[in-house]
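Hey, can you fold this one?
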Amino acid sequence: MRRRILAALAALTVAFALPVQAEKTAGNVVDDSTVNASIKAALFDNKNTHSTQINVETYKGVVQLSGFVATQAEKDAAGQVAAGVSGVKRVDNVLIVKPQ
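Sure. Predicted structure:
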């Protein structure tokens, strides 16, 4: 039962994590890539986040965090870290807290 719930949550996460492909320009892609890399580096440097389990997607400055974290505090920290990166307009934090 637990595996089915996790599989369903993972499927939802993947569905929401797919970036929108329309209206991408070379400038947007470069800017979004820079923001993405900056967020990943900030998550890696932050002692409260385990970035290997966090996926980051950016489109026109809107960031989506997906994946799995151990605690609500880690989810909150990841959202705060992402929001603090230059160029981020909004953070959609859909990280899932793994059941213990």
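The chain has three helices and four strands. Let me know if you want another pass with a different chain boundary.
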